[in-house]
Amino acid sequence: MGAGKTEFLKGCTETIVLSLLAQREMYGYELVEEIRARSKGALVIAQGTVYPLLYSLERKGLVRGRDARAAAGTRRRRYYALTRAGAAAVQDRVEVWRGLVLAMSRLVGGPAFVRG
User: Fold this and answer.
1) Partners of residue 79 on adjacent β-strands
2) 55-64, 67-76, 107-116: which has the minimum mean pLDDT?
3) CA distance 21 to 30
4) Which of 39, 48, 89, 95 could form a disulfide with 43 if both were Cys (CB 3.0 to 4.6 A apart)?
5) DSSP string spanning 43-76?
């Protein structure tokens, strides 16, 4: 991943994580794998990035964590879910993101830019 892509991703990571948590509760490694899978490997966020981000989001009141076991005999995991403030934040951020994608598509290549 080039330096420009890495810097851009740093600015998007919080929105990506909040958007995924808007869909369902997840634990850190699950978020890492979900991002990798949904982006078809184009976006890779390290566990060393996602856990500090989750702690920060929790301190800001955007997510809440709970410790639980997925099944009997498995290790404990900390699951994260959006709070009401987090749900409002993700709606605002997604709206901004959609506007940015539309503007960028107009600037750098029209409809072909947003194919996926």
Assistant:
1) 27, 66
2) 107-116
3) 11
4) 39
5) ----HHHHHHHHHHHHHTTSEEEEEEESSTTSPE
Residue 22 near residue 90 (C-beta atoms within 8 A) = yes
* Helix orientation angle between 28-38 and 47-59, rounded to the nearest 10 degrees: 120
Instruction: Identify the structural domains of the chain with CATH numbers, from first to last.
Output: 3-114 (1.10.10.10)
Query: 28-38 vs 3-23: helix axis angle to the nearest 10?
Result: 110
Gyration radius (Cα) of the chain, Å? 16
pLDDT for position 53:
95
Determine the 3-state secondary structure of 89 from DSSP. helix
Q: What is the pLDDT of residue 7?
A: 61
